Amino acid sequence: MVKRLNSSDGNFEQDFNDLLLKNRDTENDVSGVVKDILRDVKARGDQALFEYTEKFDGLSLTADTMRVSEQEIEDALKACADDTLDALKLAAQRITDFHIRHIPENDQMTDDAGVKLGVRWNAVEAAGIYVPGGKAAYPSSVLMNAVPAVAAGVERIIMVVPSPKGYLNPLVLAAAHISGITEIYRIGGAQAVAALAYGTETIKAVDIIAGPGNAYVAAAKKEVFGTVGIDMIAGPSEILVLADNKNDPKWVAMDLLSQAEHDEVAQSILITDDQEYAIKVIDAVEDHLKTLPRANIARASWNNHGCVITVSDLDDAPALINQIAPEHLELAVADCEKMLSKIRNAGSIFIGRYTPEAIGDYIAGPNHVLPTSGSARFSSGLSVLDFMKRSTLIECDAASIAKIGPSAMTLAGEEGLDAHKKSIEIRLTEKK
């Protein structure tokens, strides 16, 4: 049965803390295996990739067959229904339109001392997009990871996707094509991450790796961070719905299940101020579970990790929400703006009774790659900024360094860094 908490109970604080601290990561430690794979690919390049691909995916590759051909991409497009391609194109356009608005501008100013200061932004030169393979593939994730990189102006974008027994999901290839990706390799796992990070004879190294994967991929991304940048390490999916009793309980129940169906360790939380309404939502969840194709997964998630929290007043909810810092937050209450003003920690916020989380997964425009496991307290969803970096600009002339240089010399002297001090002093005392 789903866990139920009531803020009026004397043990609520302890029970709520237990909810926050509950570990949903059921994966075994794979770091040792991953480190061995990374070292091997770094040392042996393509040959190591071929061997691991045959071992794990049952696919024999060569340098000529590792890259997905243009003909394969064309064939994939032909295999997709027209309405599906239209939906992917609409999604790609909306994602693009949203993300290009957040490209930062260069900035330059001259301060009171006459020093010119500024910031210059540049896209990384190369980005790697990891895409899970097999029949349970997610073309929407291809768009969400690739489109911001394209919008940011990344010159070279490489996609890696495993193809177990040679199978490549046509929708994944179609989404890559629509995103503008042409360099695609049929490799996956930690070995693919290694190829992106270190490079091989065939695959040139990238500057950042983005995209979801299994425990081996996540561990590999952690390990190569520092050699390359990474987007984030995403945990199990989450949703928190704040709802009053004016919502149809069937709607809210389905929203909760929309995340529960991802996997058995996903988490769905309802916060409401009406106990009777909470029971109606719980009953509606049970009714929906009778018809969902992925009911076994959703039921395990709901029963083991779901939670229904009843508060005495909805105004008490923001404090709880900010502690949970959910990946997805739905505000289905009468005064959404008032509630929104109190929310600090959430990956993506869905406002109003007609904005289900699922609309953000596919078509709204903002990215669906979001911080999980409470990391929305200090991080954000994927954006163009993940594929860009900034350089600060400083320019002094003789007059401006004369104004601020002596203070810098004082601080350098206090730190015992004499060359620092003298590099300024020499410009002030030995003028050309």
Describe the structure.
The structure is a single chain. The protein has helices at 12-21, 31-44, 46-57, 70-79, 82-100, 139-152, 170-179, 189-198, 215-224, 249-260, 275-289, 295-305, 317-324, 336-340, 357-362, 398-414, 418-429; strands at residues 3-6, 107-110, 116-123, 126-130, 156-160, 183-185, 208-210, 229-230, 238-243, 267-272, 307-310, 328-332, 348-351, 388-395. It is α/β, with parallel strands linked by helices and 432 residues long. The chain has three domains: 3-24 and 235-364, 3-Layer(aba) Sandwich (Rossmann fold); 31-105 and 123-230, Rossmann fold (3-Layer(aba) Sandwich); 396-429, no CATH class. The strands form three sheets. A six-stranded parallel β-sheet has the order 1-11-10-9-12-13, sandwiched between helices. The chain has a five-stranded parallel β-sheet with strand order 6-5-4-7-8, with helices on both faces. The mean pLDDT is 96.
Q: List segments where confidence is low: pLDDT < 50 over at least 5 consecutive residues.
A: none
Query: Can you list the strand order of the major beta sheet?
Result: 1-11-10-9-12-13
CATH domain class of the largest domain: Alpha Beta
Overall, the morphology is globular
Summarize the biggest pleated sheet. 6 strands, parallel
Q: What is the helix fraction of residues, given as a range?
A: 40-55%
CATH architecture of the largest domain, please? 3-Layer(aba) Sandwich
β-strand number:
14
Average pLDDT for all residues = 96
Structural class: alpha/beta
Q: How many structural domains in the coordinates?
A: 3
C-alpha Rg (nearest Å) = 26 Å
